[in-house]
Amino acid sequence: MRIVSAQQLEKWLGNGRVLEKDGRGPKVVALDDGRFLKIFHTRRHPLLARLRPAARRFFGNAERLAQRGIRAPRVVDLFWLDRETGLSGCLYQPLPGISVEQLYRQEPQKIAELLPALADFIRCLHEHGVYFRSLHLGNIIRMPDGQFGLIDILDLRCRQGALGAWQVKRNFAHLRRYLERRKLTDFPFDALYELYGHPAHGQHGPDALATSGKAK
Ligand SMILES: Nc1ncnc2c1ncn2[C@@H]1O[C@H](COP(=O)(O)OP(=O)(O)O)[C@@H](O)[C@H]1O
Ligand SMILES: [Mg+2]
User: Fold this and answer.
1) Is the CB of 95 under 6 A from ligand 1?
2) Which InterPro entries does the protein's record reference (predicted)?
3) CA dist list (Å): 150 to 84, 99, 145, 200
4) Where is the domain boundary, 70, 93, 116?
5) pTM beyond 0.90
6) pLDDT tens column, 60-86
7) What is the overall mean pLDDT for the chain?
8) How many CB atoms lie within 10 A of CB 42?
9) In 104, 137, 187, 211, which residue has its Cα 20 to 30 A from 87's Cα atom?
10) Where do the H-state alpha helices sit in 26-164?
11) 82 and 142 share a domain?
């Protein structure tokens, strides 16, 4: 991977619009040419981060999703921002549209119309063997053509066959816990789960998992 200079980074940050940041700095920056810069701050040991740079994992996941016909950002460049510490980044073309979370916050009454298609999308992910640990409303984009796509795809594994029932439950438990954390408890989670094809209050439903602390 090539190394991007501090000056280039400064330029991107200076001309772009920071969309997301945390205590370690900017995470997602919309550049003035329409591309997005994603910076992968990592808590991994520098040796590990250098061996398997996050930017490359992100790129690999985008490829795996594309192979399965699932829309995700198109990565156009990968680079080191600080090779010593293992800080990497990438440039990608964003997906058009806004996240389901933004949609829900803007017009919560409209979410009911969207639920069947959202359930179908999540089922499609699972049938294609995609286990996306960060599967939540902020990382699912609703595109103008009515399709869904994924962003923030670092934390994702793909397997050959469909996910097993246990993994499906675990994935839904992540989503439920996310809704609780974001205080989106009015979101019709049970209806979504039911549409997906499971009883909303089954003995082995995600409720049990969400409180057991096992759903990491
Ligand atoms: N490919 C994309 N298409 C559209 N919007 C995006 C895209 N990637 C990021 N965004 C916007 O940037 C925000 C944060 O991006 P994300 O990759 O989820 O970073 P974070 O790690 O902060 O969650 C999203 O809420 C969304 O508004
Ligand atoms: Mg995100």
Assistant:
1) yes
2) Kinase-like_dom_sf (IPR011009)
3) 30, 9, 15, 25
4) 93
5) no
6) 999 999 999 999 999 999 999 999 999
7) 91
8) 16
9) 137
10) 46-51, 54-67, 100-106, 111-127
11) no
**Residue 214's pLDDT band (cuts 50, 70, 90):** very low
Which amino acid residue places its CA nearest to atom 18 of ligand 1? 152
**Backbone dihedral angles phi then psi of residue 4, each to the nearest 5 degrees:** -90, 135
Residue 58 Cα to ligand 1 midpoint, Å, equals 13
User: Does residue 166 share a domain with residue 145?
Assistant: yes
Q: Is the CB of 72 under 6 A from ligand 1?
A: no
User: Which of 35, 100, 152 most suits a substitution to test ligand 1, by most atoms within 8 Å of the C-beta?
Assistant: 152
Could you say which ligand is closest to the alpha carbon of residue 19? Answer: 1
Q: Which atom of ligand 1 is nearest to the CA of 20?
A: 22
Judge contact between 87 and 41, C-beta under 8 A.
yes
Closest approach atom of ligand 1 to CA 38: 17
CA distance 39 to 90: 7
pLDDT, one tens digit per residue, over 150-208 is 999 999 999 999 999 999 999 999 999 999 999 998 999 999 999 998 544 444 455 55
- 89 and 105 share one domain: no
Residue-number span of the structural domain to which 110 is assigned:
98-212
End position of a domain, from candidates 60, 93, 126: 93
Q: Residue with the nearest Cα to atom 22 of ligand 1? A: 20
Q: Are residue 134 and residue 73 in the same domain, yes or no?
A: no
- Is residue 173 in contact with ligand 1, taking CB distance under 6 Å? no
